[in-house]
């Protein structure tokens, strides 16, 4: 984002719209004077100014602050202004990287996010394909259900899932116990980290699928029917049609959805925090809650920032892929 | 297709046609069954929430689940409203969400116009910048944002919360509105300008009316996002000034966690949002993909 502002200062002579080629531009350029041209060049920046200002204040500045904080000693006295923040170099990072607990959290977060993303994308794709094959009324039903789970506030969804997976009165335990030979009554889903995180993941996936399905469905309607038909006539089976015709067309959308899912699933916070009643146990900690706990639990804002920054760095690789896609969109304009 | 390819011999064609049709109908029936299964699984949590909210508390904790809220009881809602102040948090949430949306829509509309209707050096950088900003995980930013709000004395203030909400509402609003504006032919504006409108006049009289539905949909969507936000609300506001999501997130009674009133609270918070969302979802999906595909 910072790149965006650096270009604001110098406004080069304007260029006319890229649109209607052939008519207009030439004549307009001759007619308009220099002053008008400068005004025209400034207009878009004036329109953008408030937006950029807000983004710089509440995103740009904190982002820089996040970086500087991670190299400082910043605890409660510094927060209240009793003591100035002192620079400590890489001490925070050294302490974190040496901590085995941190690495456990990293591995857990990656496993959690990866499974959630894969599950979301695969199920989302399958449901999107299914929507093309069912009757209209079934499609409407599924769409309503999807939109409902999409709109559900995370807090509400978490509460409902907690209730469904309750050990004594939860409907899930009861349902599983109906299977002959299986007894889940009184089973505590949150007694172990992996099992508890699976439930949390299920909730995350449930909330994430609608966006994927609805976007992919919209993309699928743009796949020309003739192409699929031609492939089928040429002897392709259903999978072949999907693999060689449908998928390549919607691939940009899939890449975009996957990237966004990774960013979102790496950033899961409220779900874990709420499911564990505000105090996630060590085996439930993800990078986000871990950083939060360090900052606001023990008031070590510097260490918390360093962890947050490491999380962002971890994401950067993924973001690079997404950025390439976005740049392509930018070029089309 | 097989009917078409074998047209010359009429009789077998009819047979294959009906056979193919039957097969297709059977396949469709099979897909419908799978579809209904998907529907049941996706809809279940919502159904279970409403079901629990409306049944007597005694039935909610029956080891054998009751699948229909019969007899219907409003007891849980009464309890949810009595356990702690409900309308205060709701009012605060409404104020915050509405302010965020209004500010976001105005600022966002200007920015969207700039990047969709003007050609200028650095436009691409701005577009990519706004998209990048959209991806910064908010969770990673809580510590510096908290310190920033602390510095400018906005902790425990609704205005501080509005400011932080703009970080995710703005980029989204700009991007979506851009999608809607790109879809409005530039020729309409140009025609108006030829007929003597100023650029601003052309926008207000021609583009704005066409954009209004998209603007409403985007605003409602942004409203829902602000309304649903939990993390910053938890961090910025004190307990006596909590918002609705935090109210529900920290919902406990003196008897520990009581799920039946909790589900009533969830229903009150979730159902209005779902209805709002259902109203705008179609248009939103169109706007989002229009932006994505048309570029």
Automatic annotation (TrEMBL), chain A:
Keywords: Cell membrane, Membrane, Transmembrane, Transmembrane helix, Transport. It is found in: Cell membrane. Gene3D superfamilies: MetI-like. Residues 106-322 form the ABC transmembrane type-1 domain. SUPFAM superfamilies: MetI-like. PROSITE patterns: ABC_TM1. InterPro entries: MetI-like, MetI-like_sf, UgpAE/MalFG_permease. Its main location: membrane. Residues 1-30 are annotated as: Disordered. The chain crosses the membrane at residues 41-64, 110-131, 143-165, 197-220, 241-264, 301-323. Pfam families: BPD_transp_1 (PF00528). It comes from the Bacteria. Residues 1-10 have a biased composition (Polar residues). It is a multi-pass membrane protein. Belongs to the binding-protein-dependent transport system permease family. This is Sugar ABC transporter permease. It comes from Actinacidiphila epipremni.
From TrEMBL, chain B:
InterPro entries: BP-dep_ABC_trans_perm (IPR050901), MetI-like (IPR000515), MetI-like_sf (IPR035906). It comes from the Bacteria. Pfam families: BPD_transp_1 (PF00528). The chain crosses the membrane at residues 31-50, 94-113, 125-149, 161-181, 202-224, 259-280. The keyword Coiled coil does not apply. Residues 90-280 form the ABC transmembrane type-1 domain. The keyword Repressor does not apply. It is found in: Cell membrane. Keywords: Cell membrane, Membrane, Transmembrane, Transmembrane helix, Transport. Its main location: membrane. It is a multi-pass membrane protein. PANTHER family: INNER MEMBRANE ABC TRANSPORTER PERMEASE PROTEIN YCJP, MALTOSE TRANSPORT SYSTEM PERMEASE-RELATED. Belongs to the binding-protein-dependent transport system permease family. This is Carbohydrate ABC transporter permease. It comes from Actinacidiphila epipremni.
């Amino acid at each position: 984002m910072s790149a965006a502002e650096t270009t604001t200062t110098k406004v080069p002579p304007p260029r006319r719209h890229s649109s209607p080629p052939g008519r207009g531009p030439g004549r307009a350029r001759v007619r308009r004077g220099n002053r008008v041209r400068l005004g025209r060049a400034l207009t878009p920046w004036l329109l953008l100014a408030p937006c950029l200002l807000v983004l710089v204040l509440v995103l740009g500045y904190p982002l820089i602050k996040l970086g500087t904080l991670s190299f400082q000693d910043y605890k409660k006295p510094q927060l209240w202004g009793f003591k100035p923040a002192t620079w400590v170099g890489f001490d925070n990072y050294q302490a974190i990287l040496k901590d085995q607990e941190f690495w456990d959290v990293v591995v857990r977060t990656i496993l959690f996010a990866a499974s959630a993303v894969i599950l979301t994308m695969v199920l989302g794709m399958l449901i999107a394909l299914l929507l093309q094959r069912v009757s209209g009324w079934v499609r409407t039903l599924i769409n309503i259900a999807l939109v409902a789970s999409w709109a559900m506030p995370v807090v509400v969804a978490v509460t409902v899932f907690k209730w469904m997976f309750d050990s004594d009165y939860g409907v899930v335990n009861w349902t599983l116990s109906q299977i002959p030979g299986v007894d889940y009554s009184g089973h505590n889903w949150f007694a172990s980290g992996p099992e508890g995180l699976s439930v949390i993941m299920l909730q995350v996936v449930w909330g994430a699928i609608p966006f994927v399905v609805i976007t992919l469905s919209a993309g699928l309607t743009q796949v020309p029917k003739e192409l699929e038909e031609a492939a089928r006539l040429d002897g392709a089976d259903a999978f072949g049609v999907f693999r060689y015709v449908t998928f390549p067309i919607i691939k940009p959308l899939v890449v975009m959805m996957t990237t966004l899912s990774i960013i979102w699933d790496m950033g899961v916070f409220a779900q874990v925090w709420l499911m564990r009643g505000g105090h996630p146990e060590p085996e439930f900690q993800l990078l986000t809650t871990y950083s939060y706990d360090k900052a606001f639990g023990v008031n070590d804002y510097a260490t918390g920032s360093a962890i947050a920054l490491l999380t962002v760095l971890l994401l950067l690789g993924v973001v690079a892929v997404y950025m390439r896609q976005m740049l392509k969109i930018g070029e089309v304009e | 297709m097989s009917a078409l390819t074998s047209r010359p011999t009429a009789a077998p064609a009819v047979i294959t046609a009906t056979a193919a049709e039957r097969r297709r109908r059977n396949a469709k029936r099979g897909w419908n069954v799978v579809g209904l299964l998907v529907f049941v699984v996706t809809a279940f949590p919502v159904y279970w929430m409403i079901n629990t909210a409306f049944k007597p508390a005694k039935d909610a904790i029956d080891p054998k689940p009751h699948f229909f809220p019969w007899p219907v009881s409003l007891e849980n809602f009464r309890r949810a409203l009595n356990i702690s102040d409900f309308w205060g948090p709701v009012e605060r949430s409404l104020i915050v969400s509405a302010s965020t949306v209004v500010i976001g829509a105005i600022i966002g509309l200007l920015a969207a116009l700039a990047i969709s209707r003007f050609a200028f050096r650095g436009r691409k950088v701005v577009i990519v910048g706004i998209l990048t900003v959209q991806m910064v995980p908010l969770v990673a930013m809580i510590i510096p944002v908290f310190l920033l709000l602390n510095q400018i004395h906005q902790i425990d203030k609704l205005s501080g919360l509005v400011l932080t909400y703009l970080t995710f509402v703005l980029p989204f609003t700009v991007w979506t509105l851009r999608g809607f504006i790109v879809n409005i032919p530039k020729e309409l504006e140009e025609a108006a300008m030829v007929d003597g409108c100023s650029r601003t006049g052309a926008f207000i009289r021609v583009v704005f009316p066409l954009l209004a539905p998209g603007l409403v949909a985007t605003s409602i969507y942004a409203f829902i996002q602000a309304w649903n936000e939990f993390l910053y609300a938890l961090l910025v506001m004190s307990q006596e000034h909590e918002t609705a999501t935090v109210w529900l997130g920290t919902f406990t009674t003196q008897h520990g966690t009581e799920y039946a009133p909790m589900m009533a609270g969830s229903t009150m918070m979730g159902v209005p949002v779902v209805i709002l969302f259902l109203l705008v979802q179609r248009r939103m999906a169109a706007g989002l993909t229009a932006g994505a595909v048309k570029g």
